[in-house]
Description:
single chain, 117 residues, alpha+beta, Alpha-Beta Plaits, four-stranded antiparallel sheet, 3 helices, 32% helix
Amino acid sequence: MNGAAGPAGRSFGQGQVVTVFRSRRRAGSEDAYPVLAEEMEAAARSAPGFVDFKTFAAEDGERVSLITFASLEDQRNWRDDPRHRAAQHRGRHELYSEYSVQVGECLHVSHWERDEQ
Length: 117
């Protein structure tokens, strides 16, 4: 597997699986959402094959999380984890107004970093 050290020394490589989770929250979810999101991120980080988890928020309210696992099997195990399934159910019924999920295999990795001397 070809790889490259990414931000903060994380190792990204070909064949890894990246999940792109795009979402918008419902009004009134401000208290419950951060607690559940923190629990799910901690659970993902402890799952076998975990590589990276990063979330970004846009000015228009959309949030994008990028979750990387070492393999499709690792990603599917996380997707099907009972705690994660329960969180997905709660998200659909209480927390999100919409979301989409895209899963893809990493085909190429490169990394560049300025040498600050």
